[in-house]
Amino acid sequence: MSNVPEDLRYTESHEWVALQEDGTVRVGITDYAQQQLGDLVYVELPEVGQNFVSGAECAVVESVKSASDLYMPVSGEIVSVNEELADSPELINQDPYGQGWIFEVQPTDPGELDGLLDADGYRELIEGEAG
User: Rounded to a whole number, what is the largest CA-CA distance in the chain?
Assistant: First the structure.
């Protein structure tokens, strides 16, 4: 069973979203997603300062099995990226909700967070996929 922390929000494309105290949003891929992908070998990070609309492709994770696009969970500007992933993409496999975070965004409309799945909604989604 995948780990689905209660305090995060989730997208249907398997990104997790954590609201930070300063109003930025930290984003990564879920435990379920990293299990599906297998061992990650490369992460293509977005550039700090780039702006994306919600749902836009913004990064890529590659595993030994496949490459998978990541989608922006909320509209906004990339304010930081996890540089450690360049040398250690396996951090996403080892700690998807901690050291394996991928980027942080300053949302242009924090209300978009309300449209994301909560933990229960995400669990239902992945149970349906695994079903």
Answer: 40
Give residue 129's pLDDT: 85
Q: Which helix (H) or strand (E) holds 26?
A: strand 25-29
Nearest to 35 by CA among 9, 21, 18, 14: 14
Token representation of residue 95: 């700690």
How high is the pLDDT of residue 23? 96
pLDDT at 2: 86
* H or E stretch covering 37: helix 31-37
CATH topology of domain 9-130: OB fold (Dihydrolipoamide Acetyltransferase, E2P) (2.40.50)
- Sketch the domain layout of the chain as residue ranges: 9-130
Give the separation between CA 122 and CA 62, rounded to whole angstroms.
Answer: 23
